[in-house]
Amino acid sequence: MLGFLLARAGVTVVVLEKHADFLRDFRGDTIHPSTLEILDNVGLADRFLRELPHSEVSQLQVRLPDGTRMRLDFDHLPSRFRFVAFVPQWDFLEFITAEAARYPNFTLIREAEVIDLLEDDGRVAGVRFQTPTGHDEIRADLTVGADGRTSRVREVAGLPLTETSPPMDVLWFRVSRREADGDAIELRLQPGHFFALINRREYWQVAYVIPKGANDAVRARGLDAFRATFADGIPELAERAAEITDWDQVKLLTVRADRLRRWYRPGVLCLGDAAHAMSPIAGVGINVAIQDAVEAANLLWKPLREGSARVGHLARVQRRRELAVWLIQGFQGLLQENVLRPTLGAEDRVAVPKVLQLALGLPVLRELPTRFVALGVRRPHVRTPGPQALERH
Description:
- The chain has 393 residues and is of the alpha+beta class.
- It folds into two domains: 2-56 and 86-165 and 257-340, FAD/NAD(P)-binding domain (3-Layer(bba) Sandwich); 168-211 and 213-253.
- The protein contains twelve helices and 20 strands.
- The strands form six sheets. It has a seven-stranded mixed sheet, with helices on both faces.
- Strand 14 (185-190) and strand 15 form a beta hairpin.
- The longest helix has 34 residues, at 311-344.
- The radius of gyration is 22 Å and the shape is globular.
């Protein structure tokens, strides 16, 4: 997204993709209204929704440990887009890449794995990378680490990291879906278990949240026990547990949350999970990363075009995004510690925290989490110019 926005604004951009394609199972696929608004800013939202296979979900249902049901509706959002679009991330990435490729100053190199940073007098001056044909390097005025929670750029740059310890990991798998099943995303919390059901049209994508580090113990109990746990947690889909026939169908996401104390040093900037790995709670990660990209493009396109990008410009990107990231991670941490941790560790009935009971009882408060998840803390709008504006300039 950052490469697309900068190329659109006339900056020469090279994007390095480690793999030959974008196809990875169980990537973050939730495109929230905030991201749809950003696509709309650049005239792509309608075509995105028209051309890419997706499902649209306008409500989230939660069944809490005490049996309380809670429904979050997007119908009253102050946005043109009052739903979450579930789009395979590889389709989304190919869509944005195709748009970026319309600009001759955009280049994507696949199967290019960054192995080191180039430095000149303490300033990062580009990257060294390897491809199937050997080693190569690219020199650049700015290197952006957007390489995820295990960022090589972040590691080599030596940026200071603060880590937290979410109390959970996630096992992802899928079972078939039928039209009679309904459309809503649903979260199920009960003593010792937490499941999330995500409608992917032909199938349900299922997240089974387990205590941190419990993957080996879950697998040691065997597939029969795993299927029984699923059937107990989501009884209306119990017969579909038989579709889980091999552990290869079950993928582990090791949950981590962290954030850099400083996102930059001269010549290098980290964004997205490379700057702040998010918990999977509420599926906000991809949307927060895209907001990072928009703010970075807004603040950096002109200095980069003029060859005047300085460390102060990079610091402004962090200042613009840091509070939003801190608040979202704080919200996730609050849910993890006050709802998920006691639920996963319980063998019997779990009391719903008083503050959550209050929120459930007041419509005004009940809408706050919906807006928070759907639109984020700050809704950046694209301010980078397009080709026509550049020509006028």
